[in-house]
Design the sequence.
């Protein structure tokens, strides 16, 4: 296999990796808000169950969770898992990262001084207006570095898709390396992950700087 053919073949895997990354972000960022609201619910049963669920997700390997989401429907209910590979894979990534984002959101909101809420109440803001117009803009600035770390981790975690034999850049690199007895595919994959993380870090840094309006 020539170097050009190798790049072309791995290019398809790179597109698949980018797809997993983007779809996971689109699903996990808003889902994290919902999980955070359940976690901070005044209903102790709801908050307790959500807290336990988050603990399980954060306390077990993502690789194991992917296997559970993929094979679970078959072993638990006897359902056919034909065509379930990508949906199960995506569900595993989204739920896992949503739980991490939920805890980041919760930490950011709980770090806000109570005086912010009291001042908003005095000014006649409703709870919804206080949350979205006053609290959230400040929380977003505080949690952005933590969000950036998780997004960078997600880029690298997409390699775990090989667990379900999904053809992304890392699994294709392994296949080519085994068939060609060459380390070059792993170098190409490593360069891809590095460049992707650099782009993510650069973009998030620009966003962070743009929010420093006090400078």
Sequence:
């Amino acid at each position: 296999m020539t170097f050009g053919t190798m790049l072309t073949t791995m290019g398809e895997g790179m597109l698949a990796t980018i797809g997993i990354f983007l779809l996971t972000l689109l699903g996990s960022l808003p889902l994290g808000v919902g999980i955070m609201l359940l976690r901070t619910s005044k209903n102790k049963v709801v908050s307790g169950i959500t807290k336990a669920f988050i603990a399980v997700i954060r306390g077990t390997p993502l690789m194991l969770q992917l296997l559970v989401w993929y094979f679970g429907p078959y072993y638990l209910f006897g359902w056919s898992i034909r065509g379930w590979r990508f949906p199960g894979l995506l569900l595993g990534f989204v739920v896992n990262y949503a739980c991490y984002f939920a805890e980041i959101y919760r930490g950011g909101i709980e770090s806000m001084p109570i005086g912010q809420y009291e001042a908003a109440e005095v000014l006649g803001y409703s709870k919804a207006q206080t949350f979205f117009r006053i609290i959230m803009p400040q929380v977003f600035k505080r949690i952005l570095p933590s969000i950036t770390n998780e997004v960078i981790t997600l880029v690298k975690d997409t390699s775990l898709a090989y667990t379900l034999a999904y053809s992304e850049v890392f699994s294709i690199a392994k296949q080519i390396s085994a068939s060609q007895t060459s380390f070059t595919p792993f170098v190409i994959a490593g360069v891809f992950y590095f460049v992707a993380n650099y782009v993510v870090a650069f973009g998030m840094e620009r966003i962070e700087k743009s929010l420093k309006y006090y400078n």
Remarks:
- The helical segments are 3-39, 44-59, 62-77, 85-110, 114-122, 127-157, 169-180, 184-210.
- The mean pLDDT is 88.
- The two ends are 54 Å apart (CA to CA).
